[in-house]
Amino acid sequence: MIKITLPDGAVREYEKGVSALGVAKSISEGLARKVLAASINGQVWDATRPIEEDASLKLLTWDDGDGKSTFWHSSAHLMAEAVETAFPGVKFWVGPAIDKGFYYDMDLGDRKLTEEDLVVLEKKMNELAKQSNPYIRKSISKADALQYFVEKSDEYKLDLLQNLEDGTITFYTQGGFTDLCRGPHIPNTGFIKAIKLTSIAGAYWKGDEKNKQLTRVYGVTFPNQKELDEYLLMLEEAKKRDHRKLGKELGIYTMSDDVGQGLPLWMPNGTIIIEELERLAKTTETAAGYKRVVTPHIAKENLYLTSGHLPYYADSMFPPMEMDGEKYYLRAMNCPHHHKIFDAEPKSYKDLPYRIAEYGTCYRYEQSGELFGLMRVRCLHMNDAHIYCNREQFFSEFKAVNDLYIKYFKIFGVEKYVMRLSLHNPEKLGKKYVNEPELWKETEDMVRKVLVETGTPFIEVQDEAAFYGPKIDVQIWSAIGREFTLATNQVDFAQPRSFKLSFTNKNNEPEIPLIIHRAPLGTHERFIGFLLEHYAGKFPTWLAPIQVKVLPISDKFLDYAKEVEMALLQQGIRVEIDDKKKKIGKKIRDTELMKIPYMLIVGEKEVNEKVVSVRRQGKGDTGSFAVTEWIAQIKQEIENRQSID
Amino acid sequence: MIKITLPDGAVREYEKGVSALGVAKSISEGLARKVLAASINGQVWDATRPIEEDASLKLLTWDDGDGKSTFWHSSAHLMAEAVETAFPGVKFWVGPAIDKGFYYDMDLGDRKLTEEDLVVLEKKMNELAKQSNPYIRKSISKADALQYFVEKSDEYKLDLLQNLEDGTITFYTQGGFTDLCRGPHIPNTGFIKAIKLTSIAGAYWKGDEKNKQLTRVYGVTFPNQKELDEYLLMLEEAKKRDHRKLGKELGIYTMSDDVGQGLPLWMPNGTIIIEELERLAKTTETAAGYKRVVTPHIAKENLYLTSGHLPYYADSMFPPMEMDGEKYYLRAMNCPHHHKIFDAEPKSYKDLPYRIAEYGTCYRYEQSGELFGLMRVRCLHMNDAHIYCNREQFFSEFKAVNDLYIKYFKIFGVEKYVMRLSLHNPEKLGKKYVNEPELWKETEDMVRKVLVETGTPFIEVQDEAAFYGPKIDVQIWSAIGREFTLATNQVDFAQPRSFKLSFTNKNNEPEIPLIIHRAPLGTHERFIGFLLEHYAGKFPTWLAPIQVKVLPISDKFLDYAKEVEMALLQQGIRVEIDDKKKKIGKKIRDTELMKIPYMLIVGEKEVNEKVVSVRRQGKGDTGSFAVTEWIAQIKQEIENRQSID
Predict the structure, then answer these.
(1) What pTM was computed for the model?
(2) I want to staple A552 with a disulfide (CB 3.0 to 4.6 A). Which of A323, A345, A561, B292 is the partner?
(3) Predicted pLDDT at B568
(4) pLDDT of the residue at A643
(5) What is the DSSP pairing of strand B213-222 with strand B253-254?
(6) B254 contacts chain A (CB < 8 A)
């Protein structure tokens, strides 16, 4: 008998050789039907693989990240089986699960895949899935494996085999398809109920453009049709909400070849959004006791040697400028400059917590192939701040930062979010992690306590902390359910040491502060990119570049329209008149297209009664109002940063 | 007889060989006593030099820049005469007039000058000045000049002679001193009534540190003792108001060797001033129809080749970063980025004037020896904007910019200012200046008209325009009478062409816009440096980093002090409490030292009567006020950006 420890700490005894699926069945048949794989002592295994020793076990289903990726990896094998049936002689390279779905790279000889081929392959995959063929794992000697692929003249798998050690090699077979694969896989193909092959692309073998170009087929699968339908709908909607498309249509940002790739230029409309976000940040941070600073975008090499960013982070930095025999770098992060501000005047415990904030611009090198609209850029305007505090202050400071996030999520209508708490590994202290066992324990406990006490949804990840302390990655979901990484919070014990920062504590002794790095609104680039999709360009009034458009029914009413415009302008409302020679219906359509929150229509009746007829974006008429009355309403809406109702 | 044309256009006839002094005497003896030199056909001459042909003539007095510099250059000769008397065998290099005064570089052999020597020299100079020795100009052949200095074994003057052409060489003699000099000089030494030798410095011959180090003596002279006294007082005051000293004391900015020279880091207090200035600029510019943009601090080489900044301006730019086979530069100016924004969407005449503003950060290379506090830096935050307009709009746009300056001068209590209008030279069209004779005439006329119509004090300078259009340099004087160059306004016909900018005019044809470059608040660095001196650190309330300090007379009144603080905070007033254990007198002194505009003193009486006792910085008690009443007052003062009364 072996002992199986379940996630809730319960220990059960089973026959040696029991599988995770067996364990699941012993608990409930319903549960067993959902099991895709299992985490055995922290490693993901086939649910059907025999367990020979005492182990901790976590069943993985569609709700687990590792469950999903096992599902998609198995789907890649299923696709390969369909391809091999349709195109005998095809050779495969690698076929991993990705963020959303899977792909497989293949050598089809001279054959070019078409969209029609994908339909045929989908059909075949559905057929094979229905057969509920089990994924069968088999250990194989390197010699036998080599022989197998030599016989198939498969140079790709032979290449992969070169780097594998004898005794660690496994084959997986489902139906008529066998692949060299480390696994794990789902129990059988029957789990795959809904299939969509999404695209065909070229991919150089091993990513090297000197090599042969292989065919990459992307796909995504689900355990039921409903989820696939929702996903396809989301993709369709995401296309309409593409931030690059909306960014151009709404005059948010532009790019220029002469300026350079990944360096957005913010147009007037985008700059309004930037300034509203910065106003929000400044107001919130001032109220929370932050002070603001402004620091240069460059510094000498030595600063980044002290911080440790050089040489370790050099690949992500712009190359140096050599001047007066010194190397200057564009900064990739703001922290070292802020530490210099902390250090500019002696500090005592009375000065702590010392919180300094800056919408600091950083420059990071990303390969040109990685650049993507506002999402992957080389110039970032970061909602940055650093909090220098002592250990007693840490809990309340960290909680205050967490509260900030939640406050922002409310304002922006972000309903789904998860904090991903990355912890250290005690075995790697002094190697991967700063050797401060007590501080690790203390701060990890406090961070966890904050998340638990505030009811913030979070997951814990072992052995993924930063070198210098635990970190939290913040994941948020847009209105259409797409996931974005917004920002990172970090606790830092290392930089205060390397920068020799200190304050005089109550005992009149020098003490090293802790630092919290935080950026709740992330970067303007990524956050405005997210907001464009999240709002589909229909910004709430407080953020909208143009908040109100006054539409005179004809030129006769232009004077009154101007009167209304002036009344709004004087109250700081962003308003324009559409005085073009066109019908009112066209004016309304054009304004809707520019996604402007309010239209004020003025004609005979409005002039006579000194009112405006109000249309809300996407909602139509909301009635007639006296101008001052309506101004009071919209001002309230703006001041409260009300979201779209 | 020859014809002399005076500045008012009057033409008078004189004997051939008349001097400017002769002309002056023919007008008024009083005037003649003030004449230091004269501008003859645009060249500065000795007032005593005979005029042989028809000429235009402007008499130069102490009120003219060229009058002053002639006076100071003559003073350098006077000093040299005194030095030669005191230290026979001394050899002289060059002795020019400078911004304020003059210097002379000299080789005194092994002799080291001391402060005491300066006193002796001043006395000697005063003696020689009283002799009213005339400065006598003499043309001399190169051969005779060479012989003269060979006999004196003067290798320095011989070196200067090498580069002079025979027929252009002149000697000047006053009293017993003769110098190789192109002149001009004042009529005689008697004009120099007040003398101060200010400092001694070392200076490498020809500025090359491989050469011998010469002794440089600085001095300043005036036509009367009163002006010297005022000047020395101003120097004394300027020392107290040194922006570097105040900048540190008030926590405005700091520098860090690890970040780099000339790269100020703005501390929390400095950042408050930056943000208030930016708020002023944004409010003013928004009301004036500007839109705001945000652009990256770098661009590819090609952008600066198009703008013409490369290669001509390369020495003032940071060296390039080489990346992906391209050169990227830190920008030294914002205009090219703004042109790209203008160009991002097609423009019609209806979109003009298109005004875009950005507090853009630029990086300029200055030699490390040139760096000076906030005044000469390598990182500049510029109050920049570009106005794209057509010719019909130019006058009103330029006037609006001029009005902006005047508005700002009022706000900051700048009472003395001069616009220095630099014009082109028609003979150099197509060489030094863009070949657009009509546009030059038109825009110069319009710029002049704006200055005349608005009664703005200005001077005109021939042949000093930018390559691409007329420019205005704005000179302002601080409260203690020191002159600062604040900013430059430029008209630009060249960049719109090189960037191929255009708009569709009313005839549906493409037309090239004019551009106005403007930066009324200059750069944060220079302007805040100026303000520190101008206000002696005593910022008006709206700009003061801390506006109010609440001083409880003892801990007993701390609760009430906090109540008062909270009431102020809620109204957005920057307030702190001094809750340290010290006497009220000490608290007041400390607050005065930090130059905080208001102190609210709270004790028994204030608590009972629910009032505050108010002390104004530098003025003492101003009375007791109910808290809400006083808040209304200070809010009014802040909102109006009232200057210190």
Answers:
(1) 0.86
(2) A561
(3) 96
(4) 86
(5) unpaired
(6) yes
The angle formed by the CA atoms of residues A595, A599 and A605, to the nearest 5 degrees, is: 160
Radius of gyration in angstroms for the set of CA atoms belonging to chain B, rounded to a whole number: 29
* Chain-chain contact of A292 with B299 (C-beta, under 8 angstroms): no
Size of interface A-B (CB pairs under 8 A): 169
Residues in chain A within 8 Å Cβ distance of B282: 275
A265-307 pLDDT tens trace = 999 999 999 999 999 999 999 999 999 999 999 999 999 999 9
- Domains recognised in chain A with CATH numbers: 2-61 (3.10.20.30), 66-241 (3.30.980.10), 254-535 (3.30.930.10), 548-639 (3.40.50.800)
Instruction: Please name the residue that has the structure tokens 């009344």.
Output: A567
* Residue range B581-620, pLDDT digits in tens: 899 999 999 999 999 999 999 999 999 999 999 999 988 9
Would you call B341 an interface residue with chain A, using a CB distance cutoff of 8 Å? yes
Judged by a CB distance cut-off of 8 A, whether residue A264 touches chain B is yes
Asked if the Cβ–Cβ distance from B321 to A319 is below 8 Å, we say yes
pLDDT in tens, B80-101: 999 999 999 999 999 999 989 9
Q: How far is CA B382 from the centre of its chain?
A: 15
Question: What's the pLDDT at A645?
Answer: 66
Q: What is the pLDDT of residue B645?
A: 66
- Distance from the Cα of B323 to chain A's closest Cα (Å) equals 7
**Which two three-digit tokens encode residue B141?**
């052949």
CB contact under 8 A, B344 and A275: no
Question: What's the rounded Cα separation, in Å, for the pair A585 and B191?
Answer: 82
In chain A, whose CA is at the least distance from the CA of B305? Answer: A258
Asked if A9 reaches chain B (Cβ–Cβ under 8 Å), the answer is no
- Shortest distance, CA B408 to any CA of chain A (angstroms): 21
Q: What is the mean pLDDT of residues B222-236?
A: 94
pLDDT over 80 at A47, yes or no: yes
Furthest CA-CA distance within chain B: 94
User: How many Cα atoms within 13 Å fall on the side-chain side of residue A595?
Assistant: 20
CA A303 to chain centroid:
30
Q: Does the beta-carbon distance from B254 to A300 stay under 8 Å?
A: no
Tell me the ipTM for this assembly.
Answer: 0.86
Question: Is the model's pLDDT at A66 over the cut of 70?
Answer: yes
Distance CA B162, CA B141 (A): 13
- Count CB neighbours of A153 within 10 A: 9
A265, A291, A341: residue with CB nearest B337: A265
pLDDT band per the 50, 70, 90 thresholds, residue B189: very high
Count of H helices and E strands in chain B? 20, 33
493-532 in A: which are within 8 Å (CB) of B? none
**Mutant choice from B248, B252, B254, B256 vs A, greatest count of A C-beta within 10 A:** B256
H, E, C per residue of B76-89: HHHHHHHHHHHCCC
pLDDT in tens, A534-588: 999 999 999 999 999 999 999 999 999 999 999 999 999 999 999 988 999 999 9
Residues 286-325 of B with CB under 8 A from A: 291-300, 302-303, 306, 318-324
Cα-based torsion angle of the residue sequence A65, A69, A70, A74 in order, rounded to the nearest 10 degrees: 160
Residue A200, phi then psi, degrees to nearest 5: -120, 135
Per-residue pLDDT of A370-414, as tens digits, reads 899 999 999 999 999 999 999 999 999 999 999 999 999 999 999
pLDDT tens digits, one per residue of B134-151: 999 999 999 999 999 999
Q: Which amino acid is at A396?
A: S
Q: How far is CA A633 from CA A515, A623, A636, B288, in A?
A: 43, 13, 5, 27
Residue recorded with tokens 């200095």: B149
**Structural contact between residues A14 and A2, judged by C-beta atoms closer than 8 angstroms:** yes
Question: What residues of B are in contact with residue A356 (Cβ under 8 Å)?
Answer: 268
